UniProtKB/TrEMBL annotation:
This is Thioredoxin domain-containing protein. It comes from Carbonactinospora thermoautotrophica. It holds the Pfam family AhpC-TSA. One of its GO terms (biological process) is cytochrome complex assembly. It comes from the Bacteria. InterPro entries: AhpC/TSA, Thioredoxin-like_sf, Thioredoxin_CS, Thioredoxin_domain, Thioredoxin_ResA/DsbE_sf. Its main location: other. SUPFAM superfamilies: Thioredoxin-like (SSF52833).
Amino acid sequence: MAALGVAAALGLSACAQDAGPAPRGGDTRYVAGSGVVESVPAAERKPVPRLTGTTLDGEPFDLADYRGKVVVLNVWASWCPPCRAEAPYLERVYQETRSKGVEFVGIDTRDQKASAQAFERSFKISYPSVVDPYGELVLKFNGVLTPQAIPSTLVIDRQGRIAARALRALTDTELRKILAPVVAETP
């Protein structure tokens, strides 16, 4: 777990473009993510930390309000090319699964609010995103399958535990694959 914390601290300045090595030289401001996509057996799942804040629409947000539902939590930023690539896939899967009790929530991290709002309009994102301009919300996941790069996606089960994570951009097919077993679990 300590290694995850160190990796998270180093990776929080990241934007995962692919699973390959980070570019050498120059000021790219990107660090490639590990590309990890993993599911966690129910007996080994850890609870998500307390997560509260304000959405891009100015509404109060508390992740505890989503207890009893499966939640897809995506960490993103408008300046992140892989985030732009995966945004349509996330919205598509959200539209397909929300009638099954699946909720999506974004954490817009280290970003300007106006840029994030423009991103959501451009990609027609209809689920809420919580404002995290300094990366403080992401840091709350330290020691609990910490998102190590941007984008990162966590699937949270109905009991509020982390059931899966992806440390890179996902396609709709990949997201459905890690989401389906969690949705199928008996409440």
